[in-house]
């Protein structure tokens, strides 16, 4: 072994270098790590201060016109402070719950599971409770939906005062049905459609034209009878509206067969705008921007909701009330929405539904398995468009007036937001998102406390800021639940139990 070189004791530099090499490096004092609460409070205060200084020039100063015509500058620092406190409190709650840096949630998630059973236990600590809750959600939801008119009439105190609440229920169910129809295209098949409102418009205008066109009315009234056609026009035109909307869904599907992602979204957006511009400019058929009015009212399977003899109230021995028609409209849209949900659930368990899910996950793998992707895409567009056409026909008979202004891109954006926020592929998630967004935006009309002097003032109109609050809600839900309220990307068919393969089975050719 080679010995180390001896150090020359007479050389002071060598001795000094040797001493320095043996001295350990000085350690910096360790910083005290902040606790979870301290970090949460500091980040919340920073967010509140940032909000205050950002909103100070935007909200803190308000110019109003005085009696002499000059502008007077008002200061609303209290309102800015309220917003800053709201942001601080919200960020603090998020830091202590969802965004918690340390604690049992993160530490437990970092430990790798030892087995599949342990992984399933960690992922779902309450499997039985979750299964029971998920099994009860749908019956409870549909039970409340059926009993909603009775609940509204009982709580408000009569048919007349409950008109507003039943109308809100009809409005929400319409968007639930539209969301379920678009969920087939976007959630199940994975095809981003920004022009879904076009099929909504096709269904509405189909019913409006068939029920108000003089040549068509004369022809059908002559062959079916004047009274029969007048009373049954909605029920005859409803399937026609859905079929024509499905036809236009196939027409849209052919040009976009090779498109994906953003390119598909751009083409579908253009299709929706083309339909709207056609409705505006084809004045001889659609009456242009003036729209189509005097659409016949719905009947109770041939019995009109009129006050005279032969009407609904007279036939059933009830005092006449215009709310009878509203309640019937509610149950009609509830039945259409239930039909949409039932058909969608059944289709998901059929080969076409599994083909949609395979197309959503990987189109190339879908083709390699021999699945006809062309037919799969066209069926998704057609069936989703058909339900949009049904909803459009109902919209026309409820409002009894249609115009191009009712079918703008904003409607498509709202329907798509309902699908995304609810969870793409989830029926109950889409329904919950429609209730929260549509019902929440309607509830803003009743927030009279926002007109207080210390907030926005008596001239504040909450309905003008519905889309702003709608955007904040979207951002909040996407931060809290990136995959939607009820994320559901599980395939319809999968192996529920793993089977071990033994050596004997491998020898027999089964492994």
Automatic annotation (TrEMBL):
Topological relation to the membrane, as annotated: Multi-pass membrane protein
- Report whether Transmembrane shows up as a keyword of the record: yes
Cellular compartments per GO CC: plasma membrane
Per UniProt, the keywords (alphabetical) are: Cell membrane, Membrane, Transmembrane, Transmembrane helix
| Major place of residence | membrane
Q: Does the keyword Transcription apply?
A: no
Please provide, alphabetically and separated by semicolons, the GO molecular function terms listed in this UniProt record: branched-chain amino acid transmembrane transporter activity
Q: Where are the transmembrane segments?
A: 40-63, 75-98, 135-156, 168-190, 197-216, 228-251, 263-283, 289-306, 327-347, 378-401, 413-438, 463-480
In the UniProt record, the signal sequence range is none
Tell me what this protein is called: High-affinity branched-chain amino acid ABC transporter permease LivM
């Amino acid at each position: 072994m080679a010995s180390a070189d001896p150090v020359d004791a007479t050389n002071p530099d060598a001795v000094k270098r040797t001493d320095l090499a043996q001295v350990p490096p000085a350690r910096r004092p360790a910083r005290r790590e902040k606790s979870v609460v301290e970090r949460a409070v500091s980040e919340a205060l920073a967010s509140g201060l940032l909000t205050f200084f950002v909103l100070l020039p935007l909200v803190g100063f308000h110019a109003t016109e005085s009696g002499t015509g000059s502008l007077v500058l008002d200061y609303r620092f209290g309102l800015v402070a309220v917003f800053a406190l709201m942001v601080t409190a919200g960020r603090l709650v998020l830091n202590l719950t969802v965004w918690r840096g340390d604690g049992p949630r993160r530490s437990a998630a970092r430990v790798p599971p030892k087995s599949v059973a342990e992984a399933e236990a960690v992922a779902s600590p309450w499997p039985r409770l979750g299964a029971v809750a998920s099994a009860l959600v749908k019956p409870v939801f549909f039970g409340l939906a059926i009993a909603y008119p009775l609940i509204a009439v009982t709580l408000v105190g009569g048919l007349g005062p409950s008109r507003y609440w039943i109308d809100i229920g009809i409005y929400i169910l319409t968007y639930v049905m539209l969301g379920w129809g678009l969920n087939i295209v976007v959630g199940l098949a994975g095809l981003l459609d920004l022009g879904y409102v076009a099929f909504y418009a096709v269904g509405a205008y189909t019913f409006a034209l068939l029920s108000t066109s003089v040549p068509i009315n004369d022809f059908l009234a002559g062959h079916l009878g004047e009274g029969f056609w007048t009373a049954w026009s909605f029920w005859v035109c409803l399937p026609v509206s859905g079929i024509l909307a499905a036809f236009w869904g196939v027409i849209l599907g052919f040009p976009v067969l090779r498109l994906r992602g953003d390119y598909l979204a751009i083409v579908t957006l253009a299709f929706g705008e083309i339909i709207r511009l056609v409705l505006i400019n084809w004045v001889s058929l659609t009456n242009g921007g003036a729209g189509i009015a005097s659409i016949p009212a719905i009947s109770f399977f041939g019995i009109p909701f009129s006050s005279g003899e032969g009407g609904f109230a007279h036939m059933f021995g009830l005092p006449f009330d215009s709310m009878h028609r509203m309640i019937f409209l509610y149950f009609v849209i509830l039945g259409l929405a239930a039909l949409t949900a039932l058909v969608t659930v059944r289709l998901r368990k059929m080969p076409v539904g599994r083909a949609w899910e395979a197309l959503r996950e990987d189109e190339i793998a879908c083709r390699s398995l021999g699945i006809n992707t062309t037919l799969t895409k066209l069926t998704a567009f057609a069936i989703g468009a058909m339900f949009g056409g049904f909803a459009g026909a109902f919209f026309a008979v409820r409002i009894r007036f249609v115009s191009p202004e009712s079918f703008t891109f904003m409607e498509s954006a709202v329907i798509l937001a309902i699908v995304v926020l609810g969870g793409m592929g989830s029926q109950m998630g889409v329904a919950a998102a429609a209730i929260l967004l549509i019902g929440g935006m309607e509830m803003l009309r009743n927030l009279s406390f926002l007109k207080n002097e210390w907030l926005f003032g008596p001239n504040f109109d909450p309905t003008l800021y519905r889309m702003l609050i709608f955007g904040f809600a979207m951002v909040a839900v996407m931060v809290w639940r990136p995959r939607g309220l009820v994320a559901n990307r599980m395939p319809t068919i999968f192996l529920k139990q793993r089977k071990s393969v033994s050596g004997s089975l491998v020898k027999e050719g089964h492994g």
